[in-house]
Structures are given as structure tokens and as C-alpha cells.
Sequence to fold (159 residues):
Amino acid sequence: MSDTLSPSARRVQQALAERGLELRVVEFPQSTRTAQQAAEAIGCQVAQIIKSLVFRARDSGRPVLVLASGANRVDERRIAALLGESLDKADAAFVRQHTGFAIGGVAPLGHVSAMVTFIDEDLLAHQELWAAAGTPNAVFPLRVADLTRIVDGRVVAVK
Fold:
């Protein structure tokens, strides 16, 4: 594990290692906060970027994570129907409380709280994916098989 990584990126690197994956977190000098920025920094398609979106279930207040292709807009009504509960957008404090990460750097793993997780079926079409790694300028590459191994989530249509 690199000592040059920021603390949040090191936490993601450690979570990957704990799952037996030898994937390397990379921090860029420029922002990778949005899917478009990440794709430009990495040199890949926007569809290969995993957006980690956190919602708050309206009745229970539990966190809900949607891992969506960077090219897709999440249909919140569809996710709510799958969940059986309406969704609200999560504010920055809620996201940090449940993930331990700031918006724009939410990784698909290494969260403070367990979350109901949905994985965009469109991500399965790509050989290589990229996900946020704890900060708005840190990412890591992974294969679809890695994603389904590190994330306990349900693969669904999100758009």
C-alpha cells in the first residue's frame, strides 16, 4: 500500500486487499469527481465509470447505494419499486455518515455502514471498469467479476 495515497484512498486500497484483490488505487492531480472528468483523466469511455450514488430510503431512513454506469441516469422510481420504499436524495452529511467518503469520492466498498446495493446491469457489458476510491481524484480499475465479488448487490436495470 502506498504511503503517498490520501487517508481515504488508503482505506479503499486496504479494503481491496482485504478482499484478496491486487488492484491499485490511483490518485490524479485533476478531479475525477464526475463520470465525465474521470473518463477524461483515465482515457476511457464514460460508460466504464461506476457512479456510486447514495440515496436515503424515505420511510426507514436506511442508506441505499446504486452503482450505475457513468453514461446512465438512474430512474429513482425504478429503484424505489425494487426496494419497496420511496427514495430521497441523500445530502452530503448523510453520504459521509454512511460511507465515510465525501460525495464525488464514494467507493463501491469500504463503507462505514452496510447498505442495500443495486448494480447497473449495463456495467456488465464492459471488460474494464473504473470506480471512485475515497476522494474526488482517486480511482481504481476493476473487472466486472471483481465488482460482483467485492459488492453484495443486486444486478438490475437502473435507467
Observations:
- Residues 7-18 form the longest helix (12 residues).
- The chain is about 25% helix and 25% strand.
- The two ends are 36 Å apart (CA to CA).
- Strands lie at 26-27, 49-57, 63-69, 87-89, 116-120, 128-132, 138-143, 154-156.
